[in-house]
Structures are given as structure tokens and as C-alpha cells.
Amino acid sequence: MKRYLIIFVLLLCSTVVLFAQEPKDSDTVWVKEIGSEVQQVKFSPDGNYIYAAVVGRQPMKLSTATGEILMEYEGLTLGGGNIRSNMALSPDGRLLYAGNEGNTMYIWDTETGVIIDSLQTNYEEKEKPYYKSVTVSDKYIAALVAYLYLNNHGELTYTTATHIWEVNTREKVKVLSSYGSHTIKFSPDGRYLSQIRSTDPILINSETWDLYSSNFTGHTGFVRDIAFSPDGSLLASCDDQETIKLWNVHEAKLISEFIDNREVYSVAFIGIDKIAGGCGYFHNRFVKIWDLKTKQLLGQIQSNLQYDLDISEEKRLGVLANASSGILLFDYMSMITDVRDNSANGNDTTSPNPSNGISQINFTLPKPGLTRVTISDILSNEIVVLYDGFLEQGEHNFQWIANNVPNGTYYCNIVGHDFSKTLKIMVQK
Predict the structure, then answer these.
(1) What integer pLDDT is reported at residue 346 of this predicted model?
(2) What are the start-end ranges of the E strands in 56-199?
(3) Which one of 115, 134, 308, 333 has the fewest beta carbons within 10 angstroms of its own beta carbon?
(4) How far apart are CA 378 and CA 237, in angstroms?
(5) Where are the domains of the chain?
């Protein structure tokens, strides 16, 4: 018995150490140890901040640049139990919403940390309500709340309802029956509210609060997560049977699917042409990025169990909520094959790479026109403008002298007439 106890302790310790040994390849920007289970992460609209829901802690705000915890929002301590997505940002990033056990959802000013209001669901104490999922559009606040009720067999069991408030007046406008649902999300334009009901997502029309479509069927496993494309035209859903399905929202029609041979926990769009998924079993887990048209796997980064995934196109970064008590920030541009391979288009190169401080940048413009050539760091901060003006069609060469920057990863961004190219430069002086 003593021997089994020792083995169990050693296995537990090795599991804890695994997060401390999170892969530190060139795609990883930083890893932040929080000390408790992280269930949710969200970028601010400008990508400068990350908001995190951590079990046993108050909602927190971190610096994207450094991973430093800048603020914890007082008044609410988040609980554990089953996985929840009970924190949301307003579309403009000015307000933070979160609820946990009980009837109250709090609203904070993200800049000052002050509670400016709260919303109520008014269940009885014996119903033991708790917030499972929260989402916010320009017009409405929606919260999926679980509570106990007496079923037909005389047994107490949990069911769910979606409570909806108007954003400006904070008056409750609707309560929707949401039996079996665990996650809700508004589309970017606010036209639809999506709910996950075990094996299938459904869409609700936010003008009438009637069912828009339940034709998003075909998952054979438990649907873990859903995501809308930035323009709201596409919906992605992922399940624990190794599948991501891609849907046309307006036609409620399946477009394609991705089979990963691993359980898929989370999903997020990168623009309208790429998709990222958190996939894996046990400690063999990855974030993977696919091209939506070709289904080509563009890149991947290893991580531990992921509860949530978010993307900042503004900063070209992704963030992971790890079940093993931490947050991982990664550079998704560095993961994508066509960026990592600078010679993919023969004449579009940087050399030498890695650079010793002087980089020669070569590219070919397919058309003449106004062209801007810049250098930015891994957080998309512009460092220098190499050129901003008219260029003729054909080959062009520029030089970047990196004397005043530290070693690390940088990007040369070339934007011209019907042309855009990003080249990665590794500086190692």
C-alpha cells in the first residue's frame, strides 16, 4: 500500500512539473504560472490585455506584452466544478461581465476595476443557481444559468435557462429555455445567439428570440466549443470525437470538416481563411492551425490541456487557458508554414536568417503601386518604416540594420497594390 502511495505522489508531481516544462520553442512568447486552474481567457479588442477566469481567484487582467497581472476585479471569486465560460467582455472592451454561484452577475469598468452595476436572475436558494456561460453583443447581455428543478420522476436535477438583458438600460427582456445547453455565444454582428446542446449547436434570432435554425447536426460526440468567423458568415463547432465542423451561418449548411484524430477542446478563427483548434489526449496536446480552403495543416505548437483559446489578429497572437494552472501566449504567425518558410515564393526572402544584425530583404511586386515596407516586433509594435511610397512592378531590395533591437523574432511587413507579404526575421547578434 505504501509503495502505491509513493507511486501516486510521484505521478502527481510529474504532472505538476509538466506545466513548468511547457515547450519554449520560438512560437511561445511567454508562459504565466497562475497557481490554479485557468478556465477562460479573452483578449481585449486591441490585443494589449488578456482577461482570465481562474478557479479560486477573482477575474484578472494581464499585460499581453509581459504576462504581468495588472489587476484583479474585486467582488467575485470564481468557483470550480465543471468547465464554465462565465466571463465576457463588451465588444468595445470597456466592461467586464462575470458571474458564479448565486443570482448575481457583476459588471466592472475594465480600466478602473470599479463595479458599476450588477444583474440578477432571482432564483430561490434551494435551486442552487450558477452561471455557466456569458456573452455580450452591442445590444444585449446573455447569461446561461444552471439551476435545480424537480423532474417527472421526483428527482432533483440541473437544467438551464438563458437570461437576456438590454445593454444600455440593463432591463431584462427575455428568459429562454435552454435545456441541455452549456455554452452560448453571440455572432460578431449580434444577429444570432448560438447555443451548444450536447451534440449540436443551434442558432437563435436575436431580433425575435425565436429559433433560427437547428440544422447544425452531425456531430457524433459531445460538442465542446463554438466560434464565429470575424464577419459572422461562418460557424465552427468542435467535439470530443476528433472533429471540427465548419458551417455557413446564413444557409445553416455544412461546408467542410477537419478530422484531427484527437479530442478537440476549443476552436477559434484567424481571419476568414484559417482556423485554430486545441486538440489532444492526456499530455500529447497541441494547438493546430489549418487553412480553411485547402484543409492544409499550417502549423502547430505543443501545450498541456486547454480549456479555452482566443486569437488577437491585431497582435497576431494566440492565448491558451491551461487546466494545469497557467496561461500560454504564442505567436501564431510563427507557426504558419508560409511565414516560417521565407523562401516559399523564390524571390521573397530575407538573408541571412538568422540575422547577425543586418538583413537583406528581397521581394517581387506583381503590380506597380503605393507600397509600405515596415519592421515590427513579435507583439506587432512597428519598429521602423523602411519604405512608404510608389514602387514599380518587379524585384526590390531593402536593408534593415537591427543594431538597436534585442535578439528575438521580428517581421518584415510588405503591403502593396493587391499584394501583402510577411517575412519572419530571427535576429541573433
Answers:
(1) 55
(2) 60-63, 69-72, 87-89, 95-99, 104-109, 115-120, 130-136, 140-150, 156-166, 172-177, 181-186, 192-197
(3) 115
(4) 29
(5) 26-338, 341-427
**Amino acid letter for position 47:** G
Q: How many residues in the chain? A: 429
Please check whether residue 121 is in contact with residue 143, taking contact to mean a CB–CB distance below 8 angstroms: yes
Q: How far apart are CA 324 and CA 222, in angstroms?
A: 22
What distance in Å separates the CA atoms of residue 281 and residue 241, rounded to the nearest whole number? Answer: 11
Cβ count within 10 A of residue 324 = 20
For the segment(s) 341-427, the CATH number from 2.60.120.260, 2.60.40.1930, 3.40.120.10, 3.10.560.10 is 2.60.40.1930
Please answer whether residues 140 and 173 qualify as being in contact, where contact means their C-beta atoms are separated by less than 8 angstroms. Answer: yes
Q: Which three cell numbers stand for residue 285?
A: 496536446
- Tell me, what's the pLDDT at 267? 94
Angle at 376 between CA 373 and CA 381, to 5 degrees: 125
Provide CB contacts within 8 A for 247, sequence distance 6+: 216, 234, 235, 236, 237, 253, 254, 255
Respond yes or no on whether the N-terminal peptide bond of residue 354 is cis (omega within 30° of 0).
Answer: yes
Q: Taking Cα atoms as reference points, which of 44, 42, 56, 39 lies closest to residue 111? A: 44
- When the candidates are 3.40.50.300, 1.10.246.40, 3.10.50.40, 2.130.10.10, the CATH number that belongs to 26-338 is 2.130.10.10
What pLDDT was estimated at residue 1?
45
Q: What is the mean pLDDT of each run of 10 residues along the chain (429 residues)?
A: 40 37 64 91 97 95 97 91 84 97 97 97 92 97 92 82 97 89 94 89 95 91 92 92 91 89 87 87 75 84 80 92 84 68 60 90 92 85 92 94 88 85 86
Give the pLDDT of residue 247: 95
- CA 161 to the chain's CA centroid: 25
Give, in order, the Cα–Cα distances in Å from 248 to each of 40, 197, 216, 235, 271.
Answer: 26, 19, 10, 7, 15
